[in-house]
Structures are given as structure tokens and as C-alpha cells.
Amino acid sequence: xxRAAICxxxxxxGAHQDAVTGPADGAMACFVGTVRDHSPDAxxxxxxxxxxxxxxxxxxxxxxxxxxxxxxxxxxxxxxxxTGELGVGDVAIVACVASAHRADAFDACRDLVxxxxxxxxxxxxxxxxxxxxxxxxxP
Length: 139
Known about the structure:
alpha+beta, 3 helices
């Protein structure tokens, strides 16, 4: 089972947990990525992120989630990434993986998040407290 979504609406951790939980599972690993007020590549305090998705982002996220599920066998995967303007503390990504065993859940969840970070065509505009901005991940 694989669920993947790019969406502008707030993300719910519980919905992702519910999507992957089953009677054969003994473990679930979840990652929740939130907007923070600083970044190593920003010259000031971050107050807002704007995420912009390439038209292929949904298809890419589905492929990433399916690939991770295939690599780990008996796991269920749910992952979503937000688009639009997010303030500090808002949830940008939720990834949950359920499995019969914790090692597979941990490993698959980390693999999922790292692959999304490396391959998903979403760019972010970091808006700083002084009104300036920088782009991260833009081609």
C-alpha cells in the first residue's frame, strides 16, 4: 500500500498513520518536517517558506514512495508534501511507514525522506525577517 500526495492543505499526521496501520504491523515510523526560523544558507531569521511544485511533482512522489515500498517488501508507505506559503512551525512533509518489524519501518522511513529531499522537484523560497528572500533547490 502506497499513498503519496502533493497538496496545499495542512497535513495531518494522524491521517498518515491511519493510512499505513494494519493488523500485521508491529512498528510504525513517522517523520514530520516543520518550518524552522533559521537556515544555514539564510543571512537572517526565516519567517516564511513558499513551496512551489513542478508539474511532475505528484508523479515523482508516487514513484519515490512505490520504489521505497518495493525495496523494503512488506511495508506500507504514506507521504505528503505541502505547497504554498508556510509559517514557522507549519508542517511541510509527513512520511509514515508501517511494517511488521521496527528496523524495516525505521530504515524505510529514513530512505523515503532522504529520497524525497534529493529527488522531489519542489523549490522553496525562504522569506527573511528583513523582507529579503532566497531560493533553495531552484534550478
